[in-house]
Design a protein that fits this description.
alpha/beta; 40% helix; 18% strand; globular
């Protein structure tokens, strides 16, 4: 008799993980080898084998050097080399990254299917994996034309991600402030995400809901549980929990991660920044048996000068 994936993975979850899972999730659904689509996405993802990390760089790290920003042309910062997306792929090759996250903000406004197909071709020829793309949507605006446009744009980007071969797209659910002031908007955000999840499942693209906008773990996990879709998980940004215990917040959310973005700095609740502990981040990822992309998203000053050292530090911690 074939053993279910859910049962196979349970032995790999450490006792303290079991305690969290039992409090956060319903009982795991049995998943057979012959019908893997029965996987319940509201449960932590089942992983086969030990932790595996594929290191990449987010185009957002070099955001000041692109000629476009959210569809508008601009003059790149003169402090470093101006680049386009192919130039960014070349930079990833030069720095030894396996993957490149192509942030949507920096594509030319007239980018069409042929553009994305050519970008896919250029990445393949360089041996660089397109790990995903990222959009800046907001689903907690409240019902109306603005929310409808946000959903329409998000659906379009799912299609574009599929064309360029990006297996993951970073989504913002909204902001904690808007949810705290208008609790009913959580239901609206969930319904919007469900619409996108249906399209994502059809296209084979994972949606990673990011802990952006000061979302707390309880808010983020409630969205994951409510959307309950096998192509939806968390895009876990290590610098986006501005709490007294950000590493504890990361531990709560990492079982649902489909992509991880690592920042070199973290923020306290008062906005004060301090260096991220890469060793501690790496331990959390190993402890949760995370498998997948770990993307450096450098947001500090002098990226061209400092990305190489930050990358070396990240590699050392993840080794």
């Amino acid at each position: 008799m074939q053993q279910s994936l859910a049962n196979q993975s349970s032995d790999r979850i450490r006792p303290r993980r079991r305690q969290f899972f039992s409090a956060a999730c319903a009982a795991a659904a049995a998943v057979s080898f012959t019908n893997p689509t029965t996987l319940m996405a509201a449960d932590p993802f089942a992983r086969h084998g030990g932790p595996r990390f594929r290191i990449g760089l987010a185009a957002y790290s070099l955001r000041n050097y692109f000629s476009f920003m959210k569809g508008k042309s601009r003059t790149p910062d003169a402090s470093g080399k101006a680049i386009d997306m192919v130039g960014f792929l070349d930079y990833c090759v030069d720095q030894g990254f396996e993957a490149a996250e192509l942030t949507s903000y920096f594509f030319p406004p007239d980018a069409d299917s042929q553009y994305f197909l050519e970008l896919k071709r250029q990445a393949f020829l360089r041996g660089v994996t397109i790990s995903g793309t990222a959009i800046g949507n907001n689903f907690t605006l409240g019902a109306g034309d603005k929310l409808d446009r946000e959903i329409e744009t998000a659906l379009e980007w799912i299609d574009k991600a599929a064309v360029m071969g990006a297996p993951h797209i970073r989504f913002f659910a909204g902001t904690a402030k808007q949810l705290d002031e208008h609790p009913q908007r959580l239901d609206q955000a969930i319904e919007a995400m469900k619409q996108c999840a249906q399209r994502a499942g059809e296209k084979g693209v994972f949606l990673g809901i990011e802990n952006h906008g000061n979302l707390r773990p309880d808010q983020l996990l409630s969205i994951i549980q409510a959307v309950d879709h096998p192509w939806v998980g968390i895009n876990l940004d290590t610098g986006n929990f501005h709490s007294e215990d950000p590493y504890g917040d990361l531990e709560k959310c990492v079982p649902y991660a489909v992509n991880v973005q690592v920042k070199v700095s973290m923020k306290k609740p008062d906005g004060t920044t301090y260096p991220a502990d890469f060793d501690r981040v790496a331990a959390i990822l190993r402890d949760s048996n995370y498998q997948g992309f770990v993307i450096l998203e450098y947001e500090d000053d002098a990226p061209y000068d400092k990305i190489p050292a930050a990358t070396a530090e990240l590699r050392k911690s993840l080794a």
